[in-house]
Each structure stands twice: as C-alpha cells, then as structure tokens.
Amino acid sequence: MPQPAHPKNASTVILVRQDDGGQFEVFLTRRPTDMDFLAGFYVFPGGSVEEEDCSEQVLTRCRGLSAKEAQAILGDHLSAELSLGHWVAAIRELFEETGVLLCVAESGDLLDMRKGALKKRLDEKRAALVKAALGFSSLLGSEKLYCDLSRPVYFSHRVTPEKYAVRYDTRFYLAKLPASQIPLFSSEEVMESLWIKPEEVLRRHEKSDLPLMPPTVIALRTLAALDSWQKLCDQYRLK
C-alpha cells in the first residue's frame, strides 16, 4: 500500500472588510478552470511556504511578531524560523494573488497605494515576483518595506487528509483589508474574485452555485457565527 503524500507547509489569508450594515464580507478568489489542482473552486488567497520565506534576508525585514512568538502560536514541532515563515508566506501569497500588501515603510507608516508612483512600481514588481523574476526579499529591500506580521492574525490549522494525492499542512490567517488598497479582480492565478458575506457563501454553496473545499466551508461557518464587524475584530484582535 503506497505511503500518504507528505503535506507541504502552506498559508492562507482570509481577507475581511466591514460592510455598510455593520457586518463584514470575506474575499474569495476563483481558481482558473485549466489548473491541475482545485480548478474552478473558490478559495481564500494562499499557497506553499517557500524556502525564501524563512530566510534571514526576509525575516530581517519583518516587524510586529518575533520568531519565538510565532513558534509559540503554531507549536514547538516547527522551528522558530519556519513558524515566522508561515506569516511571511501569508503576506507574500496575498500580494501575488490579489495585489494587497500587508507591509509598512521603514518609518512604520502604512502604505498609501493611492500614490501613483508607488502603486505602479509595486504592480510591476508583483508581476515579476509571480514569474520568479524577482525574489520577495529583493522587493522588500528595494522598496524599503517591512512585512507587518501583526496584521495577519492566526485563525486555524488544517491538514489535508491522507487519501488525497496532493496534501497541505495549512495555517489560516485573518487580515483586515488596508484602507488605501483594493484587491485585483483577477490575476495570473485568479480567474475572478468577489466580496461576499460568509452566510451568503454558504447558502450559495448549498445550492451548488459556489464550489468550495471542506476547509473553506469550515472557516466560513466559524465566521458566519459572528454577526457583526465589531465582534469579529474583538474576538480576533484585528488591527
């Protein structure tokens, strides 16, 4: 009997924003229908933790959470560097897929993506990052940016069951949409995207309108139990 595939470390970001009625919406992306894995499914942005995410070059450009603090949250079975790398991967994957960048300037100021020159440079560097023509550490260094690890808040943990050929050991994070940023509607790995309330996603999924994987459904059910933006922010201490 073949051995189960070893799960890859991964990070996923549930991006949230307040709606006009005091509740909240989540950001879902649809994977292209020609992809080998989860084609056409609606997912939260995310992907594998890469070696560079745990490198000294990247970790020195992080603020808001220490490696030891990250390890205490995720568990001692992971190294401190790999633990912190999960937060970095969450930020990098969110940027690659949606253009939203949870970083701060050297001064600690939030990024103002309304500034045309900054947005243009980051758009170009995001595309280069996706093509592997640019490393994340080079992007951070050239723009004098620091990953703000205080913004993605740990939410849950899920390991793909052994029966699947492709498996992930995934940490889920919650993060507020930064005030001056707007996610891309589509990108290289995203066919389309939408903002939607958790309970509405679940209703549409039950009608077979939105294909979802079990971990996504579980996360949405947890969020749907919180009936206001304030309760969400209070419970998870979102910044």
Q: What do these coordinates show?
A:
The longest helix is centred in the middle third of the chain and has 19 residues. The strands form two sheets. Strands 1, 2, 3, 4, 8, 9 and 10 form a seven-stranded mixed beta sheet that branches. This protein has 239 residues and is an alpha+beta fold. Helix content is 34%, strand content 22%. The protein is globular and about 45 Å long.
Topology (elements, then pairings):
Elements: E1 8-18, E2 24-30, E3 42-43, E4 46-48, H1 56-59, E5 62-63, H2 67-74, H3 80-98, E6 103-105, H4 116-130, H5 136-143, E7 145-148, E8 153-159, E9 168-176, E10 192-196, H6 198-206, H7 214-224, H8 229-236
Parallel strand pairs: 1-9, 5-7
Antiparallel strand pairs: 1-2, 1-4, 2-3, 2-10, 6-7, 8-9
Helix pairs in contact: 2-3, 6-7
